[in-house]
Amino acid sequence: MKNVVIVGIGLIGGSFALDLKQKYAALTIYGIDKNEQHLDEAVRLGLIDEKATFEFLDKADLVVMAIPVDATLEILPLILDAISDDTIVFDVGSTKEDICLSVKDHPKRRNFLAAHPIAGTEFSGPSAAVAGLFQNKTNIICEVEETAFKLQEIALTVFKDLGMRIRYMNPKAHDKHIAYVSHLSHISSFMLGKTVIEKEKNERDIFDMAGSGFESTVRLAKSSPAMWTPIFRQNKTNVIETLEEYISNLEHFKNLIKENDFDAVFNEMESTNHIKKILKGIQ
Amino acid sequence: MKNVVIVGIGLIGGSFALDLKQKYAALTIYGIDKNEQHLDEAVRLGLIDEKATFEFLDKADLVVMAIPVDATLEILPLILDAISDDTIVFDVGSTKEDICLSVKDHPKRRNFLAAHPIAGTEFSGPSAAVAGLFQNKTNIICEVEETAFKLQEIALTVFKDLGMRIRYMNPKAHDKHIAYVSHLSHISSFMLGKTVIEKEKNERDIFDMAGSGFESTVRLAKSSPAMWTPIFRQNKTNVIETLEEYISNLEHFKNLIKENDFDAVFNEMESTNHIKKILKGIQ
Predict the structure, then answer these.
(1) Do A262 and B233 touch (CB under 8 A)?
(2) Where is the signal peptide (chains A, B) (predicted)?
(3) Of A140, A162, B42, B170, most Cβ neighbours within 10 A?
């Protein structure tokens, strides 16, 4: 592997660039981004060695696509058109079904691996890139059997070298489960932030009363709307289902309080406490 | 100050014990707790020097009450009955209106200071105590003018020595605002945990897919039901109001997705993003 092209040099793309450089000294890392300022910043920060254009893609050994999932739908087929027969392309998007469908019949489908490394922070842009972001993180691979053997191997070696744990799953199952363990958390956090900001808009110093508990539950409300809007669009059906169940649980809890059934309120919380054990496995 | 009695030697009481001992070398710290195992553990961990009973309270200079808010309503008047004229008692409860009302006409009302240090973790019991927990944390004091001058001074000096920032507020306003910035976060977190556990109960390994975002938003679902149930009971009206506004915001967001109004979905998130700036002040 000599030439890597990162398409979208933000938090995730930039973090891949940092780790790849550190693991494989001989690599040259190229960046493509529609945001020229981000590209300049990525060069300045040492994330990429050089800027590139689509014309360069046929010289790439590996292409990492780390752009919002709506842009991936549009750009992925064009990237497959432009690469060589020996190039492996993987994406990192938080939805997988539409993305897999978008290249289902592409003549270079076997050059693509659909991936979702469960890693990130609430920040974005090249300056948010951090070394070691993927260490011990889960990476969900979808439709691995649609990717050519030797290209699977290249991508999987990279994932392993960067410290990821690999899980295989079909795109439909990925999108359904990720709605629960990721997409719903983001909405609950955004709406919690909205509820409190609306209420306290004339009393900003009320946030002096907020502690680390509030900070933890609204952390995700700092996330990028440009990244999350297309995720909710592509995963609409699953996201609506999770929201309906979440709202119904909140309504139920509210009604227990209204009816002074505090034994039931206690039980609701106690039976959720075992999330402790479940979370122990999460880094 | 020579003798301090901690009533309730859990996370908060134990953390007070640790810091008080470290700041004031000459102190002897006594513990009272209905849980004998916790008392033994507190002695073993070096949180308290000795176990005590109510009979000892008239020798106390300072009494810290760190028990669930329903127990505080019951026990606080009995403690005031038992202390000397020169003892200062403060509580640390997450509700303030009912607690202040419960001793409104007590002959020793002036020996009590109503306090709420906004500090803690999702853990509980003596082993959860940590040194320095209150450093740079906000402590809301209610009805300060109801406490005797010289006793105010003792408590405020302790708070200052432990590194807290003091804010004064009336109990009604405290309970209303804390419902938004603390109580609602706990419910949103518990119900998020419940929603995901219910859905994934037959597929426990799905939690492999959960990342730090999920961990952050459900962290508070590890909290103690014995502590939180009486808080929701005492702050029922405010908690129900916050829940209704939160549910209505979630419904609205869901409907925007349903109606494919993704410009509005984007705007909802973008206008909440400035929570970043607000949170900068929170430790």
Answers:
(1) yes
(2) none
(3) B42
Pair (A99, A220) in one structural domain: no
Distance CA A7, CA A13 (A): 7
Question: Residue A198 corresponds to which tokens in the numbers above?
Answer: 């609306």
Q: Is there a single domain that holds both residue A133 and residue A87? A: yes
Q: Closest to B190 (Cβ–Cβ): which among A184, A211, A269?
A: A269
Using 70 as the pLDDT threshold, list the residues of chain A that sit under it: 202-205, 281-283
> Does B106 lie in the same domain as B40?
yes
Beta strands (DSSP E) in chain B are 3-7, 28-32, 50-51, 62-65, 88-91, 112-117, 138-142, 165-169
How many domains, in total, are found in chain A?
2
Interface of A with B in 164-183 (CB under 8 A): 165, 167, 174, 177-178, 180-182
Whether residues B131 and B204 share a domain: the answer is no
Q: What does pLDDT average to in each consecutive run of 10 residues of chain B (283 residues)? A: 97 98 96 97 97 97 98 98 98 98 98 96 93 96 98 98 96 96 96 92 74 91 95 98 98 98 98 84 52
Cross-chain residue pair B258–A240, CB shorter than 8 Å: yes
Residue B211's pLDDT is what?
A: 86
Q: Which domain holds residue B236?
A: 174-279
Q: Is the ipTM of this complex over 0.90?
A: yes
